[in-house]
Design brief:
Arc Repressor Mutant, subunit A, three-stranded antiparallel beta sheet, 6 helices, 3 strands, 8% strand, globular
């Protein structure tokens, strides 16, 4: 591996680790674990979303979503309600506490994002977006 690529991967790892640590420190007292703030934000934007849809949007297994929702429900941040038309389908809603926490998480992530990009010019941001998109497409090439 080229030295420059290794340095880049190491730098990305450090940035993601710092984000993770700050997020955990900020939300840890709320009994929140990695991935749960994002899940709350998704539910907030799609009240009544199904567990299957949550699984698909988060690119995780249905069992992972069930485990995350069990913890969120135990902390009274979400409720699951059977679908009116098909009782096998569970729809997920935020409680008032969950909505408040989702809003706190969104504000925190906006502040974190602003801090991450302090000093970047508009041109640097556009270049960065283009490069990250290129990396993402390298990991998810179009199906043939």
């Amino acid at each position: 591996m080229k030295t420059e690529v290794k340095q880049l991967v190491d730098a990305f790892s450090e940035v993601f680790k710092a984000i993770h640590q700050r997020s955990y420190h900020k939300m840890g007292d709320k009994h929140m674990y990695p991935g749960q703030p994002k899940l709350l934000a998704l539910i907030k934007d799609h009240e009544g979303i199904t567990q299957k849809e949550l699984s698909e949007k988060n690119c995780v297994t249905p069992a992972t979503i069930t485990g995350m929702l069990n913890k969120l429900e135990a902390n009274k941040y979400v409720i699951r309600v059977p679908d009116e038309a098909d009782k096998r389908i569970m729809r997920v809603y935020l409680t008032p506490e969950g909505r408040h926490l989702a809003e706190q998480g969104k504000k925190f992530m906006m502040a974190m994002t602003e801090q991450l990009f302090i000093g970047f010019s508009e041109e640097e941001l556009q270049t960065f977006v283009m490069l990250v998109e290129k990396m993402r497409s390298n990991l998810h090439p179009p199906e043939k």
